[in-house]
Structure formats: structure tokens, C-alpha cells
């Protein structure tokens, strides 16, 4: 899709283990998403890859049938790819 690497943090209500598994399965099936982190307690999902943020958010909203709130979007240019975009 887009050539730029993009990292996005979203808020999605993940209240049980089933919701967590469903979210994980959805993210693994979206081929543009390269890495993801699901924080169940904070109801936050962080994803990185080459995608259009609004397209991925709409896909997740339709499949999860839940409200998806985009908290943060970071576009990373090619010069910054040697640094890790998300440090835990």
C-alpha cells in the first residue's frame, strides 16, 4: 500500500480473553501490519507496518464490531528505520 512505515496506537475495549484472541487473529490476518502489541489492561493496541492508518482502523472496527479510537499516529521516514520505533 503506502511505502512509508507507520506506527499507530489505538484504544479498543478488550474486556476478556476471547476479545484479546479475536483482536490478535484480526491483526495477524492484516498483511500490511508487521508488528503489534496488545495491552489488555490499558485497552490499547499498538501496530507498526506499511498501511493507511484510517483503512486499518476501519477494518478493525468492522471485524471487532467495537469503537476504535486512534490515539497516536507516527510516520517513520526511511532514515529512522535503524532505530526501534516502539520501545517497551
From TrEMBL:
Query: SUPFAM superfamilies, alphabetically?
Result: HMA, heavy metal-associated domain
According to the lineage, what is the superkingdom? Answer: Eukaryota
Gene Ontology MF, one = metal ion binding
Q: What's this protein's name?
A: Heavy metal-associated isoprenylated plant protein 25 isoform X2
* Gene that encodes it: LOC108660569
